[in-house]
Structure formats: structure tokens, C-alpha cells
Amino acid sequence: MESRGGNDVVVEPISGAKVHSDDHLAVQVPDTAHQISHDSWFQVGFVLTTGINSAYVLGYSAAVMVPLGWIGGVVGLILATMVSLYANLLVAKLHEYGGKRHIRYRDLAGFIYGEKAYFLTWGLQYVNLFMINVGYIILAGSALKAMYILYRDDHVMKLPYFIAIAGLACGLFAIAIPHLSALRVWLAFSTFFSLVYIVVGFALALKDGIEAPSRDYSIPGTKISKIFTTIGAVANLVFSFNTGMLPEIQATVRPPVVHNMIKALYFQFTVGVLPLYAITFIGYWAYGSDTSSYLLNNVNGPIWLKTFANISAFLQTIIALHIFASPMYEYLDTKYGIKGSALAPRNLSFRILVRGGYLAITTFVSALLPFLGDFMSLTGAISTFPLTFILANHMYLVAKRHRLTTLQKNWHWLNVLFFGCLSVAALVAALRLIIVDSSNYNVFADL
Predict the structure, then answer these.
(1) Which partner for 100 in 11, 124, 401, 444 could form a disulfide, CB atoms 3.0-4.6 Å apart?
(2) Where is this protein found (predicted)?
């Protein structure tokens, strides 16, 4: 079925359609049980902005600025913003490549390369999203623990307990919200919650910074450790701005699909990045190299205000996790034909069992290894770099090879090689960080 909007021709996915590579390899591409082509570019822009301004921003002062310092951190954030926008635009422009819509990242890769790339991309993406969700549950548990400590610093309730509570809350939300487009009003709540912890964190850090003596902004560690932490921080930079599921988000936007997605991306990388910049820079300015991996643990101020900020971080994390878990939910709902009313007994029981099971596993891993910064680095290394930069540039190179000049081809190849080397280096650095932290802490650590 075709529909026209602007200059774009939208070809809806047909059940049983084939994806072909140049070698005529084929993989089966199912229709989707979820809603597509329904949301305005503005709503999609808020989905993207919700992802980058989640409670993860409360850790960027420590995860990015402390290892890189002022010059490296500021320049790195700006460069990461520009490079991420460019890479995401490449993927967005390929959404209707070949005269049909590719509503999943793996569908697009399979159409361009064939069966092996289809499954490789699928694997990379789900590793990426699973680890992002692990981080979200760690964040939600950390927010609950930070709030608890404000009233009772007796260590009776430990971080793994709060992570379990966070996992239960995320499970209840996942059961109630059937698909990504159904978030709607929850995106407004998400924006409100984000503004609360960012504004409160900014204001209290500004107050602390004005009242505090001079801070130490030197990069901590030995020469060897600085090399690894710097590489890890670069992985955190790309993690900050990229979802790893752009085609899935683009699938929800109304026609003209490419034009509207480009507007959503420009919204994300202009207005959307300002809160991230603000909280990241003020946190490092106020506390220097002593900045906590969860900024609200650093700030001083009225208990009620810090409680409000921590509750907001907890609630926003639940909404943000749902965005990054939605490709998993879409796959399972499509595979087992879960359509229609969200309250239908079969649909409800399926979500309780399957989504609840997925989040139970995610929660267990979060409690087992609650090293948030390490997960950010590892996720950036093994999946964000390949999906967002290496694959995006190479797919565009292959898809547009007859229209690109030699200079443009060389530019894309340079990006592929550069980010490939960076991905390998970041993987080594992230594994080293995890090994070091695992030797310093027991499993189910109370950090």
C-alpha cells in the first residue's frame, strides 16, 4: 500500500516481503504488530530527547569530564554532537531506500547486505539495548537509594534491593504501555521529570560551586590508567547521543518520513542537547575530579528538594527504559501475533509473562554488576560505535555508491576505518575497567 506526503513515497511493509542483497540472499521480514506512521515529528523529537536527557546525564560529569578534563571534555562533547547528528542523518535518509520502508535496523542492513548482516545487526542492536536497559535499572535503583539515604543512612536497605524495586516498577509500566507510539502523554511527564532533576541538580551544584573553595580539575590516575579511562570516556561520549534504534523510532513518524525524521533529529541535536550540556558542565565545575557518578549524591540543599529530584530521576528512568526496550517488545509481539486491545486477556497475560521475564533478567544482571560507568563504556564500544558510526557510513557508501564522488567515498571509508579502530580500543578499555571494578567489589555490591 502506498501513500504520498510531500515528496516522499511511503511503502508500507507487507507481511512476507523479502529483503534482498546484491547476491540475491533473502531473509524473511515480518509485518509489525505495533503501530507505525502515526506520530508527528515533534513527538518523535521528544522521544529522541527523552533518550539523551534521561537520568544518565547525572553521570556524565564523572564519566566524561573527569577522565577528559575541561578541554577534552568540552571539545569532545561538541564533536560527539556533530558526528552523531551526521551519522544519524545518514541512517534516516536510508529509511525508504529501494522504494520501501525499513522499520527495523536489521531490515535495512539485510536489504543492503543480505542474510548474515541482517542477523549480525540484530545481535549488535539487542546487545546494545539490553545493556542500556541494565544501566537504566541501575540508575533507577541508585535514585531510590539516594533518596533513602537522605532520611535513613543505616545501610539496612542496600543498592540491590532498590534495583529489584526499580525492576518491578519498570515491569509494571511495560505491561501497561503496549507500544512506542502509546507513550504520548508519558513523554510530557518524562520531559517534566527530566527538567526537575536537571534544574535542581544545576541550581544546587551552582550554589555549591560558588561557596566551595578551589577544586582539583586534574585528571586522576597513573599514566597507563589515564589512557584507558580516556578511551572509555570517548565511548561514553558516543553513548550519550545515540539510540542504536533510529529506524525503529523513525517507523513511528508520519509521512513524509525522511523529511519529518530529519526535523526531529535537528530538534534533538539543538534544543535537546542543551540540558545535557548544562548539567554535565556545571557538575564538573562545582566538584572537579571528586564528581560522583550520580551527581545528586554530590549536591547539598534542602532534603525535600533533593527527594523531589531523586523521585523524578526514578520515574523518568522507567519511561526512558521503555523506549529502549520497545524493539524487543515489538519482535515478541509480532512473532506471537499480539495485536488489538491492550487489556485483552491473552495480550495482557503475554506481556506479564514475556516482558516481565525480560525485565527480571535485566534486573538480575543490574544487581549482579552495578558498575554503571563500565556498562556505558562497554555498550559504546561493542554496539554504539558499530551501529551508529561504522554501519551507518558503510551502508550509505554502498547504497549511494553510484552518486558519490571519489572524495565523498574516501570520506566515508575514513569514518569506517577510524571508528572501527576506536571501537576495538574502547572495547579493550571497557573490559579492563570491568575487571578492575570486579576485583574491587563483590557481586551484588552496595555502591
Answers:
(1) 11
(2) Membrane
